[in-house]
């Protein structure tokens, strides 16, 4: 069976995208290299125009429309990154664009899409509902539906990233790629594997999904695309409940492994990228880094983590940073029952100071269900240096006769 997308298609897409899509940096990641034990790099598509890789596939897809199709305009559905890519590409080509976005789409993505001149509709509650609404709009108006991932031209456009990676890291052994519906990893796998084969060497492609909404593992096990239930995830950009009909065969043929990461892993990765590399990355774009930090990637040689996007709502970033601190053992909230007599708060404070725990917030109350009349409860949030340090804090309090409980446990 002949594959729909080949290296030749990707190379053609690269010629069309020259001067439109930015050639984003590939940076050596010292910290990730230490963690993985091999030279590790990051392909920074979060620095792409519109803040993600989606510009590539959208631009190439629109560039292939006939004059008659262009006159009818285009329609798309997206949680944000594909929306911006289509809106930007349509603006560059002078086309009318209508975008259906979920009601809860991140505000920066919504505003940016409108800023590129698209008409935005937020009637759908989920991406799947938006896809149905977009399809109905296309049927009603004749507008051309631009699918976020499941089209050969979109796949070829995304595959140009694979060419750039091997231009910058010619000895790359492994490329780690986010997976939603499979458009990005399909294109990168085609480009990287065929080019490596041309050079007479192997290439390993590893896909990463958010465990909360991971459609590829059960689909690969079944041998065909499977629809899964949607679960909440902060990685909204890859929360796709069914692989594409065009992408699935490519992933099954060319992707060596698919792993999944937890919400804690995602939060930790976003925080690590912010602290260690000074990069703002959305959770969907951080899944390759999350997989490395979680120990899910086998080190076999020079490795490239594809950081696919950086469009994150500041309010979500604030919550993720807080969650990431907790997940990495950097922040802990304790509930400590105390006898209601003078000096107890001071005694706890001295113990915390003696083990180097920095107090962030304190709540001292008698109004708590379950307390005896002569007891109070102290809720104290402390900054810690990791799980081992948290253990030391708890041990010191217990040794002094207190009974601390970690909030959330």
Produce a short descriptive summary.
The protein has 409 residues and is α/β, with parallel strands linked by helices. Helix content is 44%, strand content 17%. The mean pLDDT is 93.
Describe this structure in words.
- This protein has 409 residues and is an alpha/beta fold.
- The protein folds into three domains: 7-53 and 151-325, Rossmann fold; 54-145, Rossmann fold (3-Layer(aba) Sandwich), CATH 3.40.50.1100; 329-406, Alpha-Beta Plaits (2-Layer Sandwich).
- The chain has helices at residues 7-17, 30-36, 54-63, 67-72, 81-93, 107-115, 127-141, 152-168, 183-198, 216-222, 247-254, 263-277, 287-293, 314-327, 344-354, 387-399, and strands at residues 26-28, 40-44, 74-77, 97-100, 119-121, 144-145, 174-178, 204-210, 257-261, 303-307, 331-339, 358-365, 375-383, 405-406.
- The strands form three sheets. A six-stranded mixed sheet has the order 1-2-10-7-8-9.
- The longest helix is centred in the middle third of the chain and has 17 residues, at 152-168.
- It is globular and about 80 Å long.
- The model has no long low-confidence stretch (mean pLDDT 93).
